[in-house]
Automatic annotation (TrEMBL):
Belongs to the SecD/SecF family. SecF subfamily. Part of the Sec protein translocase complex. Interacts with the SecYEG preprotein conducting channel. SecDF uses the proton motive force (PMF) to complete protein translocation after the ATP-dependent function of SecA. It comes from Borrelia anserina BA2. The lineage of its organism: Bacteria, Pseudomonadati, Spirochaetota, Spirochaetia, Spirochaetales. It is found in: Cell membrane. The keyword Nucleotide-binding does not apply. It comes from the Bacteria. This is Protein-export membrane protein SecF. It is a multi-pass membrane protein.
Length: 299
């Protein structure tokens, strides 16, 4: 006979601790960092990809040369197909985003880096995003996330019942808030790739929760002689091995991506790893206690 763990006993405590971590992280982000590190997708600025005809140049070498010219910029090293060259991407955040500003950046990159390293510097491509476009993109991203939650609510309500839908929404919102708090504390740049990662986390977390909820629904029909609290504990215990194995497998896969990649994909993998961890424990310790609270109140 399978051992049944009393997960609901510590569910409320886990929820409170998790919410405290989230809100304290938000406070820390705005007090210590002054807000989030928005990429040029959601603010405004210029992105330039360039190549230095010299091997062994690092991103901090480029930053050292350019730091007197720009206050807010970031340099990322890109793996080049040419082993005799060093390729980089620079993002300069600025409210001034026009062709003249982009040309100015091109000139500074070519002149200063060529003088510093004594080799040719070639601009591969560049683009700028103005404040109007970034504002529209930010608004649409928020609407996209809200629409996702609305569709989740409808889907789960139709497949199960409204109480299950409410519980899954709250658990998924918890996961997203935790990830957003993580982004703020560690100053990870929020760009389109991060939004994709967040939406992926929504799908992963929801799938994890649905597996448990499906077993709860099945057991609630068969175990009519026990309380719904016991049904929840039995259902979570029965799906625990599956939940852990799936999460570990996913985490290891994404971790390998994090180790062997650079740039935006690396950030995607890092954020998704956090989402896997948070989504796993929220499915067990947060979604089910909320379902227990809503089960008799919301049909």
């Amino acid at each position: 006979m399978q051992k049944v763990f009393n997960f609901l006993k510590c569910g409320n405590k886990v929820t409170v601790v998790s919410l405290c971590i989230i809100f304290s992280s938000f406070i820390y982000t705005f007090i210590c960092h002054g807000g989030y590190n928005w990429g040029i997708d959601f603010s405004s600025g210029v992105n330039v990809n360039f190549v230095i005809d010299k091997v062994g140049v690092k991103d901090y070498d480029v930053k050292k040369v350019l730091s007197p010219f720009y206050k807010t910029f970031d340099v990322n090293e890109i793996i080049s197909s040419d082993s005799f060259k060093s390729q980089f991407s620079i993002v300069v955040k600025s409210d001034i985003t026009d062709y003249a500003f982009k040309k100015e950046i091109h000139n500074i990159l070519v002149d200063r880096l060529s003088a510093e390293f004594g080799v040719n510097v070639e601009i591969l491509d560049s683009y700028f995003i103005d404040s109007n476009f970034s504002s529209i993109l930010r608004t649409r991203s928020i609407l996209l996330v809200c629409l996702t939650f609305a569709l989740i609510l409808v889907y789960v309500a139709l497949r199960f019942r409204l109480s299950y839908a409410v519980a899954s929404i709250f658990a998924t919102m918890h996961d997203i808030l935790f990830v957003i708090a993580f982004l703020g504390v560690f100053r990870i740049e929020i760009n389109s790739t991060i939004i994709v990662s967040i939406l992926t986390i929504v799908g992963y977390s929801l799938n994890d929760t649905i597996i448990i909820f499906d077993r709860i629904r099945e057991n609630s029909r068969n175990m009519t002689d026990v309380s719904f609290l016991n049904v929840l504990n039995v259902s979570i215990s029965q799906t625990l091995s599956r939940t852990i194995l799936t999460s570990v497998t996913t985490f290891v896969t994404v971790f390998s991506i994090y180790i062997f990649t650079e740039g935006a994909i690396k950030d995607f993998a890092l954020v998704f790893m956090v989402g896997v961890i948070v989504g796993t424990y929220s499915s067990i310790f947060i979604a089910s206690p909320i379902l227990l609270s809503c089960y008799k109140k919301i049909r």
